[in-house]
Amino acid sequence: MIGGGKDAFIGAVHRIAQNIDGQIELVAGALSINPEVALASGKELFLADDRIYTDYKVMLEKEAAMPAGMRLDFVSIVTPNFVHFEPAMMALDKGFNVVIEKPITFTLEQAKQIQKKLEETGLILLLCHTYTGYPMVKQAKQLLKNGTLGKIRKVYVEYPQGWLSTYLEGAGQAQASWRTDPKKSGKAGCMGDIGTHAFNLAEYVSGLQVTQICSSLNIVVEGRMLDDDGAAFLKFNSGATGVLMATQIAAGEENNIKIRVYCEKGGLEWKQEDANTLLVKWLDKPTEIYRTGGSYNSSYPAHNTRVPAGHPEGYLEAFANLYRNFALTVRAKKNGEIPKEEWLDFPGVTEGIRGMAFVENVVESGMSEGKWKEFTV
Amino acid sequence: MIGGGKDAFIGAVHRIAQNIDGQIELVAGALSINPEVALASGKELFLADDRIYTDYKVMLEKEAAMPAGMRLDFVSIVTPNFVHFEPAMMALDKGFNVVIEKPITFTLEQAKQIQKKLEETGLILLLCHTYTGYPMVKQAKQLLKNGTLGKIRKVYVEYPQGWLSTYLEGAGQAQASWRTDPKKSGKAGCMGDIGTHAFNLAEYVSGLQVTQICSSLNIVVEGRMLDDDGAAFLKFNSGATGVLMATQIAAGEENNIKIRVYCEKGGLEWKQEDANTLLVKWLDKPTEIYRTGGSYNSSYPAHNTRVPAGHPEGYLEAFANLYRNFALTVRAKKNGEIPKEEWLDFPGVTEGIRGMAFVENVVESGMSEGKWKEFTV
Amino acid sequence: MIGGGKDAFIGAVHRIAQNIDGQIELVAGALSINPEVALASGKELFLADDRIYTDYKVMLEKEAAMPAGMRLDFVSIVTPNFVHFEPAMMALDKGFNVVIEKPITFTLEQAKQIQKKLEETGLILLLCHTYTGYPMVKQAKQLLKNGTLGKIRKVYVEYPQGWLSTYLEGAGQAQASWRTDPKKSGKAGCMGDIGTHAFNLAEYVSGLQVTQICSSLNIVVEGRMLDDDGAAFLKFNSGATGVLMATQIAAGEENNIKIRVYCEKGGLEWKQEDANTLLVKWLDKPTEIYRTGGSYNSSYPAHNTRVPAGHPEGYLEAFANLYRNFALTVRAKKNGEIPKEEWLDFPGVTEGIRGMAFVENVVESGMSEGKWKEFTV
Amino acid sequence: MIGGGKDAFIGAVHRIAQNIDGQIELVAGALSINPEVALASGKELFLADDRIYTDYKVMLEKEAAMPAGMRLDFVSIVTPNFVHFEPAMMALDKGFNVVIEKPITFTLEQAKQIQKKLEETGLILLLCHTYTGYPMVKQAKQLLKNGTLGKIRKVYVEYPQGWLSTYLEGAGQAQASWRTDPKKSGKAGCMGDIGTHAFNLAEYVSGLQVTQICSSLNIVVEGRMLDDDGAAFLKFNSGATGVLMATQIAAGEENNIKIRVYCEKGGLEWKQEDANTLLVKWLDKPTEIYRTGGSYNSSYPAHNTRVPAGHPEGYLEAFANLYRNFALTVRAKKNGEIPKEEWLDFPGVTEGIRGMAFVENVVESGMSEGKWKEFTV
Fold first, then answer.
1. First-to-last CA distance in chain B?
2. What is the distance between the alpha carbons of residues D45 and D5, in angstroms, rounded to a whole number?
3. Under an 8 A CB cutoff, do C216 and D241 touch?
4. Which residue in D103, D256, D280, D102 sits closest to D205, CA to CA?
5. Counting C-beta atoms within 10 Å of the first and last residue's C-beta, which end of chain B has fewer, N or C?
6. What CA–CA distance (Å, rounded) separates C73 from C94?
7. Which of B253, B291, B315 lies nearest to residue C311, judging by beta carbons?
């Protein structure tokens, strides 16, 4: 693991997600650029002393030289956005599969370089768009894919948060500070941090791709340097249209990502606050409540469910589903086996490139006086 | 009553709304342009034979000549959009107060003429934006007005319906046919029919006015002549921004109008499906559930509530609130009394003009290649 | 109308319920035992001066002598429990159909006398168990009746209120005072006031009858003279069992009556807080959400629905459904027509007798040291 | 770990709960009485070959003889009810702390022996009443404990499941078979399996103890040998009363455990289906929605929360909270430190004895013709 020391948030989440299924063991880490934090964090996590590093480059060098049985199967990069690209490229160069927090890189161009590197090396990459790990999100995708509801007409996706309602970065809050700093976060604030999740969820569930975009971005909190609120109209490659809304200044909201898709015969609704429920609506029949663990679900949600219906699974399980599917695929590849299609259903570099393109396009459209912009990649 | 014969939908709703409080009696009607329907409907409604008319002009003439005690206090116009203006102008000319279904007229220009006529005559007009009659909508408005939540930053309003998911007008369905016909409905379809409700709700609850708009309208169902889906970005006079979504092709949705407003310290959420609940969210405190009938509510919702908390009040009561407040105001005026401020809280010609301006602006913006359009009135 | 003056609660509710459909006109009233209130209330309700009475006996005498066209079709009795029996008997004797607030009488014996009188006179009676007027309650009954869910196994019904959490009667609150006074309310407090509604709902929806009962009643608030809380185990004539809970000291609850019925293949859930929704649960399929106005509903809810799906109907509409069905039946009878079966679906004396038997049995069981008591009528 | 081989359900859940926080490592196991299953399961779980056992007695012997650094810190017993007591006693005798699935033993008498053994050895025991591990359950307990809501008056607890709606045991379904077999499950079926959870939740949240009980148990599915449905009236040591309902034949229900507690000034409501929400109701104020991760929560839920508000935590996290608190306490004890009070908040032998007493009392009361039975321990 690169990054994720004891003062970080997302690193701890990654470790829980790795731990849950008992299939992944953390054995080495360069957990912080602060050497003291790196050492202390490694000790807390029961790493062997000689596998606690204070420099990720050293770690990748040394670990690459280890014998096969001890060698890392993959490297997780959980640093801020601007420190994704270099460690990822080096890890791939050293022959390690890679897990990266989203957004995949700082720029679209970097994402394309990673794609090229993956093609050259044959290695694989997991990008942590966690929401696609929920069983009911997978069920939604399958219901749309198999055509039960008819052709998709409309996609609404929204991601309201409230935690940046005040000028937190002025108070030195760590999470807020790098996310609102263009040098660390990239071209977009809210749209990069959570808009990309909404965008990914829309494309994942619908199976469609955005081809045109018209956005309006705002900086609501005084003094902030990047957008903290915005919305976009979307056109998809099938002719369907959509609306995407993301905000971090919706005071009182927690993390309420939600998607609705309407088709010729009915629609779907899923929201993270009630993650184990998928509403399936019909033009002429009662709405149906699909639930995690239901015997009627398809093989995709079934594979990503751990406990019987009625025992809520949450964010950490969704995250663990990404890791488990990635690990199953890595192991299959290592063993020369063909991974099941359900295992391969995790976000990777393609989603990373789409996400970076979203950031570039949504920002450019936001600054434009024209309405529609081609979604370029 | 003009229009609203036995084959109409909204006329029956108006009559229930008039009846509920026992303060309004229907005594005369030109209920249909079809004389047979007009007569049969009048009989069914227990009208005196000599006050059942087959022509609204004749009715307004004759009723205007009645002695004071028998004379109509007001006229309700519940015809399709293109038959609002002329009967309204004639009714005002004859000295009757007027109730009109929304949208107020066929064009913005006509709405302005009605405003002028109202100013000249001193008569009053009720425009049936029903959703503003709900107690919890009124409570939302009061909470924002008194500043408890701080300055408004963001308004989301949406109105998804599904009933026009198929080409109903092709099958001759009466409700669908005139609403999708530009000659009867006006420049906009979905945006005129329900977008205006969403727009009105946003301006009513927030107390703000839209000053710029960027819209995207769609005709989703093949063969349809007017928009059946659309969305708009909004800028308000305070600097706040918003998103408005309205659609009639969200298969599986009923009539799910919903508004969310976010301010500096918290936010509000109300939706018609759960009309007696208002969520009040806070940055640092538990969300509060305000309920119709709660002892903590302000005088506005209290005045518009009929039964104790826990006995759900619905759409018809909200509608009846418009009529009751209008009737209380008409009576006060008649008696030379000053109406209470709670009574005056009903939509009128100002809202009608704003609504017609919305139709004009949202359609024009929808056709424009530029992003933002000044909201002109 | 007998009772229901301007200081009463339920009288106003009855009048709204009568008004809604424009089929019932209030023409005479003995609205209060206080002559001044009676007169003032009558004037406020636009009654003719000569039909405002200060004594119900005088009213019944005089109105009975009116010519056919002017004669009352029925009399509504909305007085406290202990003033139901005598006016009802006199009204029936004078040839008027009768509407009574529940519970039908003060004692079971009186209820049986009313039944006998109805049989003798051929008149009809409406007992206001409002909750059975909700469209989705009727849909629940039909789904159970037609066997879709298999045989009934379990019935849970509950009615939590919180308004008697303090010693309101000590402060002279009118509603609380008579309801907690054995001389005015009868043998039971909470069980008579709302337990009877829960009991009626259970028998109505399930189509079953209670045959054995085991109850536990409590007086929670110090100083109170009647039960304000309790629960009962139930055995039904089919072998199914149930649990009934009713309380008026659940601080923070409004009026949250709820029923769940489980059968061999699935179950039903309805609650008044979300009155337009009926959950239909299945052993092996997604739960279905039935909604008021849904095209899939049976003729019973359809007949009792006024507006399209998505426009919430509430308590007053449910109440109006009782009145409308009663009025349709009265009119059919008057015209020598056969009422439709959907019209006949309103609670009457049979439900009244069952309700009074419930009061007697639940109180007796509550005082018994034995567990099960035969439910005697 | 004793039990929990690859064909078991709850063993896998325990392992996830152990894994999540990276503080507990599974190093040895007697995972099945079937040696092949035991071996295969051990390999799958990456156990060292010499620590995979086919007999728990051998395991306890051998492991007890290991040097301090390698020695087990505790043993988890996840076998069916009738195989809890002996391994637990032996483990304690050998000096291991113990984790046991609920119910703690087969009989109340055995539970008392375990208590005695714990007192003698000074070892500690975790009993897996998972629902008390939810952050919002802990918040509920704290709100009641600190008196904010006033004195408790009423407790409703219910646990409806539907999975035993058919005669599953007749079809050889493993989970159903032992649970419905008196020789393996004990005196009670539904009441032992889930009624004990409801009972524990009621006592945990309220901080009260049941002193009297009146129950009614049913065998609904033909051929079944133990109760699959039942309810009980409860009296608590404070004078408060309650109702407990548990059923496994509520077709269409998943695992919907729910508790409501009403006090003088307000009430609480929590249900597992919406586990991250706690409703706090007030007599005179809007209901409040407390949420996992809220900054206003007490130190107990805060300690048991892993991710920020809005990222749902579920059943596995609740389970992991039990394990983490147990592990923190074991480690503190090992290190001679004083565990924090938040760590000590996990169910143990006291709860085990109360639960076994519940089984005995609820069954005895169910068979009695008298109403109230003293709750004896």
1. 30
2. 10
3. yes
4. D280
5. C
6. 11
7. B315
List the one residue out of D283, D153, D288, D269 whose CA is nearest residue C162: D283
* Subunits in contact with chain D (3 or more CB pairs closer than 8 Å): A, B, C
In this prediction, residue B43 has a pLDDT band, given cuts at 50, 70 and 90, of very high
Three-class secondary structure of residue C286 per DSSP: coil
Helix (H) or strand (E) holding A153, with range, is strand A152-160
Residue range A194-243, pLDDT digits in tens: 999 999 999 999 999 999 999 999 999 999 999 999 999 999 999 999 99
Pairing of strands C287-291, C277-282: antiparallel
**Are B225 and B180 contacting, i.e. CB atoms less than 8 angstroms apart?**
yes
As a whole number, the mean pLDDT across chain D is 96
Q: How far apart are CA A119 and CA A134, in angstroms?
A: 28
DSSP string, D124-150: -EEE--GGGGSHHHHHHHHHHHTTTT-
Q: Nearest CA to C262 among C93, C84, C140, C126? A: C140
**Chain A interface mutation, best of B218, B282, B285, highest count of A Cβ atoms under 10 Å:** B218
The pTM assigned to this predicted structure is: 0.97
Higher-pLDDT residue of A82 and C325 is: C325
pLDDT at C69: 85
Structure tokens at A30: 């360069």
State the Rg of chain D over Cα. 21
Say if residue C7's pLDDT is above 80.
no
C-alpha distance from D17 to closest chain A C-alpha (Å) = 8
Q: Are B150 and B370 in contact (CB under 8 A)?
A: no
Three-state secondary-structure class, residue A55:
coil
**Unique residue bearing structure tokens 């047979």:** B36
Q: Residue D185: pLDDT above 90?
A: no
**Residue-level length of chain D:** 377
How many Å from the N-terminal Cα to the C-terminal Cα in chain D?
30
Residue count of chain A, please give it.
377
Which value does ipTM take for this structure?
0.95
- What single letter denotes the amino acid at residue A171? A
Q: Which residues of D touch A255 (CB under 8 A)?
A: 308-311
Residues of chain A with a CB closer than 8 angstroms to some CB in chain D: 9, 12-13, 15-16, 19-22, 26, 45-46, 161, 163, 253-256, 272-276, 291, 293, 306-317
Instruction: Report the C-alpha gap between D256 and A311 in whole angstroms.
Output: 9
Inter-residue contact A322 to A69 (CB < 8 Å): no
Phi, psi for residue A92 in degrees, rounded to 5: -65, -40
Distance (Å) of CA B259 to CA A73, A163, B205: 49, 21, 9
Distance between CA atoms of A318 and A134, rounded to whole angstroms?
Answer: 5
Work out the mean pLDDT of chain A and round it to a whole number: 96
pLDDT digits (tens, 9 = 90+) for A89-147: 999 999 999 999 988 999 999 999 999 999 999 999 999 999 999 999 999 999 999 99
- Min Cα distance A118 → chain D (Å) is 31
Report the alpha-carbon angle B365-B371-B376, nearest 5.
Answer: 45
Strand, helix or coil at A258?
Answer: strand
Per-position b or e across A2-39, b if 16+ CB within 10 A of its CB: bbbbbebebbbbbbbbbbbbbbbebbbbbbbeeeebbb
pLDDT of D232 higher than 90: yes
